[in-house]
Design brief:
With 339 residues, this protein is of the alpha/beta class. It contains 10 helices and 14 strands. It has helices at residues 11-23, 109-121, 146-159, 170-179, 193-201, 216-227, 256-263, 272-276, 282-291, 318-334; strands at residues 2-5, 27-32, 37-42, 60-64, 84-85, 91-92, 98-102, 126-128, 163-166, 182-185, 206-209, 234-238, 268-270, 296-300. An 8-stranded parallel barrel has the order 7-8-9-10-11-12-13-14, surrounded by 7 helices. It has a 4-stranded antiparallel beta sheet with strand order 2-3-1-4, with helices on one face. Strands 5-6 form a two-stranded antiparallel sheet. Strand 11 (206-209), helix 6 (216-227) and strand 12 (234-238) form a beta-alpha-beta unit. Helix 9 runs parallel beside helix 10 (318-334). It is elongated and about 65 Å long. Bound molecules: phosphoenolpyruvate and manganese (II) ion (MN). Phosphoenolpyruvate binds next to loops.
Length: 339
């Protein structure tokens, strides 16, 4: 249910509503809107109509049911887009298109610092790099783990770019959160509900990738796991799904962007590197993602893709990334967004 407060509701009146929601056995979530606050009450669907009684409290304008299964992620609860602040100068979900770039995996100090400076120079806003790598084969490079986090922190300091890196399990989530500005949940973990709950309890923005066989509704339900734990900062990422097509690594579902924009207030970004699997297809699909309404893109960049320990085939060299960034500007202007 959504408890819509009157625009002039007092703080005490909001607190009274919050306490009553708790008394009735539901979990309150305050969502600050531009003109008024709304309070989402989530919990057992079966008895929710008892919340209707809150309508008689002063400060409450109306109580309405949320019809979608994803409650806090839905536009029913919040119509305005959510803007997620990463640092004082970087936010995702506002007018500015955000570009995240960096290697698939952090391999050594020289590599991550070289890429960090190169992508910054080309205009990227956030540096990516995996320290804990979820690999299909247990015999391939698994990431530098904590050592990788330390190198990422160094690259962050030298470049001034905020960083995003993947969290593989609840046990290491807090450690990763100490080093990273954004926690990435990868495609293979996007329905790992214990992990989703864990990052929902941490105070760091979460970049949630779409599972490779996940419907859009399931993606929103996974986001709901994070939101319902109290973490309102979730960025959704379309990264391609499994289809019968073999010419690309995955099928990048760009139609997910307008659909998600219709359904949720959360920001949506696109990862055309994993979405296509080939460096040469990354620029056209990046342009298409922006044209379709994405709030940003995430691109793999490596100084020497042939020697990369993971995903070299889909990684752009810095000069190609820089070229792509130049061409991207026209698309950003075309959709009336900021660079
Ligand atoms: C990655 O970003 O390097 C990654 C492993 O992505 P995904 O989870 O989308 O495969
Ligand atoms: Mn990768």
């Amino acid at each position: 249910m959504i408890i819509v407060m009157k625009p002039e509701a007092l703080q005490e009146e909001k607190e009274e509503v919050i306490n009553k929601i708790k008394e009735l056995g539901y979990k309150p979530h305050v969502i600050h809107g531009t003109t008024r606050d709304v309070i989402g009450a989530v919990g057992d669907e079966r008895g929710k109509f008892i919340l209707q009684s809150l309508e008689c409290l002063s400060g409450v304008e109306k109580v309405v049911p949320i019809l979608k299964p994803y409650k806090l992620a839905s536009k029913e609860v919040k119509k305005e887009p959510t803007m997620i602040k990463i640092t004082d100068s970087v936010s995702i979900g506002g007018r500015k298109i955000v570009v995240i770039a960096g290697p698939c995996a952090i391999e050594n100090e020289d590599q991550i610092i070289k890429v960090a400076l190169a992508v910054k120079e080309a205009g990227a806003d956030i540096l990516r790099g995996g320290a804990y790598k979820p690999r299909t084969s247990p015999y391939t490079f698994q990431g530098l783990k904590e050592e990788g986090l330390k190198l990422l922190a160094k690259a962050r300091e030298i470049s001034g770019l905020p960083v995003v890196t993947e969290v593989l399990n609840p046990e290491t989530a807090e450690l990763v959160a100490e080093y990273s500005d954004i926690l990435q949940i990868g495609t293979r973990n996007s329905q790992n509900y214990e992990l989703l709950k864990k990052v929902g309890q941490l105070k760091k923005p979460v970049l949630l990738k779409r599972g490779m066989s996940m419907t859009i509704q399931e993606l929103l339900m996974s986001a709901e796991y994070i939101l319902s734990e109290g973490n309102q900062s979730v960025i959704l990422c379309e990264r391609g799904i499994r289809t019968f097509e073999t010419k690309t690594r995955n099928t990048l579902d760009l139609s997910a962007i307008p659909v998600l924009k219709e359904e949720t207030h959360l920001p949506v970004i696109v990862d055309p590197s994993h979405g296509t699997g080939y460096a040469k297809y990354v620029p056209p699909m990046s342009f298409a993602a922006i044209a379709a309404g994405a709030d940003g893109i995430m691109i793999e960049v490596h100084p020497d893709p042939e020697k990369a320990l993971s995903d070299g085939q889909q990684s752009l060299i810095p000069s190609k990334f820089s070229e792509m960034m130049e061409k991207l500007k026209a698309f950003i202007i075309a959709v009336d967004r900021d660079k």
